[in-house]
Amino acid sequence: xxxxxxxxxxxxxxxxxxxxxxxxxxxxxxxxxxxxxxxxxxxxxxxxxxxxxxxxxxxxxxxxxxxxxxxxxxxxxxxxxxxxxxxxxxxxxxxxxxxxxxxxxxxxxxxxxxxxxxxxxxxxxxxxxxxxxxxxxxxxxxxxxxxxxxxxxxxxxxxxxxxxxxxxxxxxxxxxxxxxxxxxxxxxxxxxxxxxxxxxxxxxxxxxx
Length: 209
Prior knowledge:
- This protein is mainly α.
- It has one domain.
- It has helices spanning 2-12, 14-33, 43-51, 56-67, 74-86, 90-114, 136-154, 158-177, 183-208.
- The longest helix is centred in the C-terminal third of the chain and has 26 residues, at 183-208.
- It is globular.
- Mean pLDDT is 87; it is low at 1-10.
């Protein structure tokens, strides 16, 4: 029994296990809150505070940032694939492609399960027609830019890794600023994305072993 309980810790390491538990708890609380009146009373004040900073140049900036999880995402993925392929890290390159496909797919599935309508607090700058919870852009950013950040950090490219990691936060903020998501949608994506990213790292270590 004792060995069974320690199995996740041996596979992921104690820090990763703790992070999975914490992120899972955050995600559970956010999902549970969708069925409770007043649970997300903090959503609207945060959205309005961020929206209060609205300026034309900021609108353009955050639209540009949010588009880096759409067509523009092809560029950093291709650059990273070339880098990995030249280093003969073909398995890791394939996992990056898998992350770019799996993370948004998970988002679409979870959206259908919770079926949370989009926010109506103020007119959105970026209009979406799917459900709101969780943020697909944010989850995809975690899967792609977060994974790239880890890969770069492990290979000694610390500044590029930090930029890629910070970009995930920029994308998350852009979704709230543009009125496409509630803050709770974004936090949920960061939480579940963290869990998926840790699992992806475990798979990468296992396949490259």
